[in-house]
TrEMBL record, chain A:
GO terms for molecular function: oxidoreductase activity. This is Ferritin-like domain-containing protein. InterPro entries: Ferritin-like_SF, RNR-like. CDD domains: Ferritin_like. It comes from the Bacteria. SUPFAM superfamilies: Ferritin-like.
Length: 389, 427
């Protein structure tokens, strides 16, 4: 290990970071135990991490292979989803009605987008790096723009995934509900895009790991995998991130925007839990269930460690700090710790509830330090008010 | 200005190859440690500017205050306006405001194009007014407008505009004459500021150097955007030592200018491009924006048609107001119009009003207190369209009515004058 680090230290900073990125990706692939999960995530991993398909500056084409499920009898089959549909109709709101007239100055210390402790740059002193007050404010602004950019990209994925799932799902009440979710996701794209373009004036490229997740579930032909990926994993990630930012930002427009978005998201995860609980417990074989259980675990890990804002690292710290140290720093910084806690305290109970956290896989969750969240309430027991508290 | 289609049966293979090249470029960048930009600067898009305008601004007047009057030439002033209540103006480049000017107890409406760019900041907006011979409103504004005056305005409205998209690689050709420069300046400024890969070339015709509006502003733009913005002045009467174009922008004049533009090196704008790939990409096929006196516009159209530029790539703003057209009309040998009774059905509830000689249907209706819908009052938006049930009107052409609407008997109240007793239905 020592020898490799001495060798790599001779390389230019940019290449050293790249080597770290490759090692990180290989490490990820090597740790996937189930070959079917590897087969499902592998090609997406290559497209995202090695080919940077999301960063090529041109639109990305992703082939979908699911079947549209028609039902000419229009059954009233899922009362819980019918109830959600009715709530979703009532809960529609207009993105134009947010207080867009509020002036946002991303560098104003009086109204910080993020509190200082979110990305605690003092901690970088451990690595011998001092950050000036001015730089601190800029990085805080960049971090907010980075997070919101990832939200926006994630919402674009959610928009298309919600549309695909609406086609493919076999529950008719689920299809009606799904239509409202497509509208919700469209509105989320609208408001995040508008906030970034008109207030922060900055858009970051999609993070490679987020691209991998989106690519994997968009190209998977099995609707329940899309569902699991989008409604449980990505929405869980989004709830964690939105909730963290909602609680910590002092910027009133962003706060209001996130509040409205979180109320929609609460329905989305709830829908995911009821549709998948039904499906995983009644409609698939044990072997298929196990594959999904493993896939969910891998994606949970991907989400735990890999959203390290490397784009920010490249912008501000490449050459001053190694990529591995940046990762260690980000993973320890209070905002990220909080984000992970919120995310997993939502995600893990949901996985339990839909039957993807059986004793078979518990040791791996234990090993990853995630079992502490096992006892929490799943999305169908949580209200929007609780999510906003 | 070659505008050939580029389809070939190999295009599918070609696009695969392109995708492969892009993949390879990314991998090579990683392996060689090429630095990369992970973000881009963003500005409000057309979508955001449009939704930001609350509907009331279009339908009912807002009050604005004149904060600065700039004399551009002997015959033109620019009025800088801010909302009296401090609300920001949102507009698309190329749009116009309709000013409601009170003169001798009468409210006169005139449309003036916005000359500010969407980047100019300050929350206000500027319009440029050029004196029209015999024009009451333009003369009034030119001689009387002062800082601190208040005016009522409608709009912004108009569809002579561009939807700004930072990723576009436009090749804009602006062809302007006289005060037709106003919306073109707004378009040029906005596109240059918001679309780092687009190029703008302006051909600007005037009688003499003294009459050229925005001489300095244009020169500043050229200096600010080297390689992305160029101006060619064409003067009918050139001063000594003049190196620009000489002559009128008639069919030959426009043709010669268009040919000269087409002969320039094909554009590849990379001034602010930060990644090597984008800088060498070619520009989109040229888009032409025309605004000037009707004679120049007709000539430009003819010259463009002769060069097979598809009309879908040509946009026009007719820069005339009812006042100008009445003046033009007086010169023709048509019968002078007489006062006529107008029956307003539908929303007009059957009221009969009398239009004075030359008054438009809209003016007559509003004068009598009928709540007729309207927006631009210049034949440009269609908000005031009414159905002619009986009688005959003279309608200013061209205007925005489509062939289908004409067939259904619609006319524009703001651009129509009764030639006989008429009945119209106000929707």
């Amino acid at each position: 290990m020592l020898a490799t680090s001495r060798l790599t230290n001779l390389l230019p900073a940019r290449m050293r970071s790249q080597l770290d990125a490759y090692l990180e990706a290989l490490d990820l692939l090597r740790n996937i135990r189930d070959p079917r999960v590897l087969a499902a995530l592998g090609p997406s991993g290559v497209r995202g991490i090695f080919l940077h398909r999301g960063k090529q500056g041109v639109p990305t084409q992703m082939q979908a292979a699911h079947a549209a499920h028609f039902d000419w009898r229009y059954p009233s089959d899922q009362p819980e989803m019918a109830e959600l549909y009715s709530r979703a109709k009532e809960g529609q709101w207009n993105g134009d009605s947010l207080p867009w007239a509020i002036d946002v100055d991303p560098l104003n210390p009086e109204v910080p987008l993020l509190p200082d402790r979110f990305l605690d740059l003092h901690m970088l002193e451990d690595y011998g790096i001092k950050v000036s007050e001015k730089e601190k404010r800029e990085i805080s602004y960049a971090m907010t723009a980075w997070m919101l950019s990832q939200f926006l990209h994630g919402e674009q994925g959610a928009l298309f995934a919600a549309a695909q799932v609406t086609e493919a799902v076999q529950f008719f009440d689920g299809k009606l509900y799904g239509a409202t979710q497509v509208m919700d996701e469209g509105r989320h794209v609208e408001v995040f895009n508008r906030y970034l373009d008109t207030k922060l004036n900055k858009l970051y490229q999609i993070n490679d790991n987020l691209f991998v997740i989106i690519d994997s579930l968009m190209t998977d032909g099995r609707w329940d995998m899309k569902f699991l990926g989008m409604q449980i994993m990505v929405e869980g990630l989004a709830l964690g991130a939105f909730g963290t930012l909602y609680r910590q930002t002092r910027e009133p427009l962003l706060k209001e925007l996130l509040k409205m978005v979180i109320q929609d998201e609460a329905r989305h995860v709830h829908y995911g839990v009821c549709a998948l609980r039904e499906h995983f417990t009644k409609h698939i074989s044990e072997r298929e269930r196990q594959e999904r259980e493993d896939w969910a675990f891998e994606v949970a890990l991907l989400m735990r460690n890999r959203f390290a804002a490397y784009e920010l690292f490249e912008e501000y710290f490449e050459g001053r700090l190694s990529r591995a140290n940046w990762r260690a720093f980000v993973n320890r910084t209070p905002g990220m710790v909080h984000f992970r806690t919120v995310m997993f305290s939502r995600l893990v109970p949901n996985l339990r509830e839909i039957g993807l956290l059986s004793p078979r896989v518990m040791p791996r969750y234990e090993e990853a330090g995630l079992m502490q969240y096992f006892g929490g309430a799943a999305a169908d027991k949580l209200t929007a008010e609780q999510l906003l508290s | 200005m070659s505008l050939r289609a580029t389809f070939s049966p190999l295009s599918l293979l070609g696009s695969r190859l392109e995708a492969f090249k892009r993949d390879l470029w990314m991998v090579a960048g990683d392996v060689t440690g090429r630095p990369r930009a992970s973000f881009e600067r963003r500005e409000p898009l057309g979508r955001h500017l449009q939704v930001a305008a609350p509907p009331r601004e279009v339908l009912s007047p807002r009050t604005v205050r004149v904060v600065r009057v700039v004399r551009e030439t002997d015959d033109a002033v620019t009025l800088h306006l801010v909302d009296a209540e401090g609300a920001a103006f949102t507009f698309l480049p190329g749009q116009f405001l309709t000013l409601l000017v009170e003169l001798d107890g009468e409210t006169l409406r005139r449309a003036y194009s916005i000359c500010s760019g969407v980047e100019d900041g300050g929350g206000g907006v500027a319009v440029t007014v050029k004196r029209v011979p015999g024009g009451r409103v333009s003369t009034h504004l030119l001689t009387q407008a002062r800082d601190g005056d208040t005016l009522r305005v409608l709009g912004p409205s108009g569809s002579f505009t561009v939807a700004l998209e930072p990723a576009r690689r436009r090749d804009l050709v602006l062809l302007g004459g006289g005060s037709g420069i106003t919306p073109l300046l707004s378009i040029a400024k906005s596109v240059l500021a918001r679309e780092p890969f687009s190029r703008v070339r302006l051909v600007f015709g005037n009688r003499s150097w003294d009459e050229v509006i925005f001489r300095d502003a244009l020169a500043e733009l050229v200096a600010a955007y080297p390689g992305r913005f160029a101006v060619r002045h064409v003067l009918e009467v050139a001063p000594k030592g003049w190196t620009g174009g000489v002559g009128r922008l008639d069919v030959e004049g426009c043709g010669a200018e268009l040919d000269a533009l087409a002969d320039e090196a094909p554009g590849c704008v990379g001034a602010q491009a930060n990644d090597g790939e984008k800088a060498v990409e070619a520009l989109e096929p040229p888009e032409v924006f025309l605004c000037g006196p009707e004679g120049m516009m007709a000539a430009a159209r003819e010259a463009l048609t002769a060069r097979r530029v598809p009309l879908s790539r040509v946009r026009e703003e007719r820069f005339s107001s009812p006042g100008q057209q009445v003046a033009a009309r007086g010169a023709s040998d048509e019968q002078p119009l007489k006062p006529q009774p107008i029956t307003l059905q539908g929303r007009g509830q059957g009221r009969v009003v009398v239009a004075t000689a030359g008054q438009t249907v809209l003016e007559a209706g509003l004068r009598a207190g009928v709540g007729m819908p309207f927006s631009c009052a210049l034949g440009g938006c269609g908000a005031c369209k009414v159905r002619l049930v009986e009688g005959e009107v003279e309608m200013e052409e061209p205007n925005c009515l489509g062939a289908e609407e004409r067939a259904q008997g619609f006319v524009l109240a703001c651009a129509s004058r009764a030639k006989s007793a008429i009945t119209v239905e106000v929707p």
